Amino acid sequence: MNKLKCAAMGLALVACSFTSLSAQSSKMNEGVLKTMKTATQFMMDKVSYHGGFVWSYLPDLSRSWGEMEAKRTMVWIQAPGTPLVGQLLLDAYHATGDEYYYEEAKKVANVLIWGQEPCGGWNYMFDMAGENSMKEWYATVGKNGWRMEEFQHYYGNATFDDSVTSDVAKFLLRIYVEKYDPTFRPALDKAIHFILESQYPVGGWPQRYPLMYDHVFQGKADYSSFITLNDDVIPDNIDFLIQCYQALGLKNLKEPIMRALNMVIVLQQGAPYAGWADQYTVEDLQPAHARSYEPRSINAGTTVAMIHKMCDYYKLTGETKFLSGIPAAIDFLESMKLPDSEVARFGRRPLEEGQILVPRFINPEDGKPLYVHRKGTNAWNGTYYIDQDISNTIAHYSSASAINIESLRRYYEEAKATPKEELAKNSPLLCNGLTPLPKYYVSYRPARRGAKPDTVEQIVKSITKEGSWLTPLTSLSNPYKPCPETNKQPSDETRYGSTFVGDEYDTSCYPAKEEVMGISTQVYVSNMAKLIQYITTNEK
């Protein structure tokens, strides 16, 4: 009897504990859901401009920044900008079932449609105050950003750089297939047409479109028409077209997808420098220059990215030709390992276990490293130059890449060993019929891992009464002011050689030296994603 009584008491205690834990979990879930709603209402109603966002704001919204300082009327597309917020809202909708998030995502979609260029693509940002306001920004803030050469002149067309057009297009596709609201189909179709129209017959894409050749810079041709790999231009467009193929059943997209995939094979250079460049001339598919600090070269970082992509393309197609060039690419990277003496002279950061340091830019003719330096004080008197000296290189664009060769080899071997039947099962190009888009888009995918309860608790507690997560801003800038003629003369000044910003007339953003609290779009997305993780991993 005593044993039975003890057992019964034990079961009762377990039941009580379970009930208590369940109550705590339920209370936490309520707090999480309330926090998500409060934060989103604040961001959408108080911070956004008609549903559009930039990267960061002062608490009173008196100043704001994307990659550079932005006007209040601007909408920034580059991540972590407006499309990312739209994707996050759809994630929240899937996680909670709350129609509020879908309705807010529609607002984001509508503002992005407003900013769609007549050609069908998007620029880095747009200004809801109108094109004259946009041009004025380019002539002032943009023109004076020393290291921000892509903003120093107004193009008036759309860009694939920094995943701009593809990010918006992917979001419009996702919100369209969510409920097949016909409101979004015209803009989506226009974006698809734009990507198909801008593709070169050989398979690649330019950085910007419609093609323009009128921004010759420092005696070099306008690079925006070159076939571009940099910042995943070709891979991003391939990815979007595949998503349309799998979600909309647009069979006509198969040919341009395969043409682009085959282009990537062609762009690999031959041994012994068997890597990939950032961009290529259209006429002869040779490595080409871009900005002043992006010389004609083979790029080690881009080569690493393309090794991963070629493995992925093998998984998509089952065709071994995508794997054939990888061993030579890995051997090339390994051959470029810098000696310990050069690593010490570079001195930027310690290498992690298994990593080697290689030059970022490599001469495609002789394999010599190309290191980037600068002198001067601002966009008017400053210049960039190239040599073989790894010391005192520019800080805003690393001249060397840390690479784990063995990790690359493992990725390659794992891809090569993937059974053909598994490829056919998992590839949208190999399976028949429509396949759904992922349920969650934002990188903190709930299906993969959950958020720790203490982290979630801290996020819930740290929100202000009005609904913001105030955080130290990581990047600030000098306010624009005209540069006097005395500061425009050629300069050999070296003190800004390894800084993010020059003198007071340089409008480039720089890491904040003092703590300035503000509102960060990235922090909102990150915190919301972790809350989504929590509720999806704790739902019954």
Account of the protein in words:
The protein has a single domain, classed as Glycosyltransferase (Alpha/alpha barrel). The protein contains 15 helices and 19 strands. The chain has helices at residues 2-47, 82-96, 99-114, 131-142, 164-179, 185-198, 233-248, 254-267, 300-317, 326-335, 340-346, 405-416, 420-426, 453-462, 521-537; strands at residues 56-57, 64-65, 69-70, 74-76, 125-127, 158-159, 208-209, 227-228, 279-280, 298-299, 355-359, 361-362, 371-375, 383-387, 400-404, 470-472, 475-476, 510-511, 517-520. A 5-stranded antiparallel beta sheet has the order 3-2-1-19-16. A two-stranded antiparallel ribbon has the order 4-5. Strand 2 (64-65) and strand 3 form a beta hairpin. Helix 2 (82-96) packs parallel to helix 15 (521-537). It starts with a helix and ends with a helix. The model is unreliable at 11-21 (pLDDT under 50).
Using only C-alpha atoms, the radius of gyration works out to 25 Å
- The tally of strands reads 19
Q: Major sheet: size, sense and barrel closure?
A: 5 strands, antiparallel
Total domain modules: 1
What structural class is derived from the secondary structure elements?
Answer: alpha+beta
Spatial order of the strands forming the largest sheet: 3-2-1-19-16
The shape, in one word, is globular
The CATH architecture can be named as Alpha/alpha barrel
β-sheet strand percentage: 5-15%
Assign a percent range to the helix content: 40-55%
Helix segment tally: 15
